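Entry 14. Ran structure prediction on the chain below.
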Amino acid sequence: MAKKSFSVEKLIIQLSLGLLLAVGGIWGLQGGGDFGINSLKSVFSGSAENIAVIVFSIIELLAGIYLVLELFIGSLGKFKSILMLIIMIVWIVAIVLSDFIDGNFHNFMKWLWNFAGHLVVFGSILFCKN
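Output, structure tokens:
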């Protein structure tokens, strides 16, 4: 069996993304919301919104915890791929909704800054997906 090589870049990106997702999940369960949750709130309303937020918050929390744990105990199977796929889809929808459909283009530099940050997270999701 081939031994995985250690990468400082992967450690930093995976740890950062894991913490970001875990905190976002906790925040969503507390009634707040990160970028993905706020986008879900703009799509759904009423009890459907509550269910979508709770489900995505739990998925986000599990994915974040899993990403951090994976650094120390290794892979736990296909579970990560499923969680990351769901988060990736929601993140793409959130980018389209927030940055393009509801985007504030009047302050272009602020819009570009937010868009770039969202792409950095999306790139991290793609990087850590496998």
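The two ends are 18 Å apart (CA to CA). Will compare against last week's run tomorrow.
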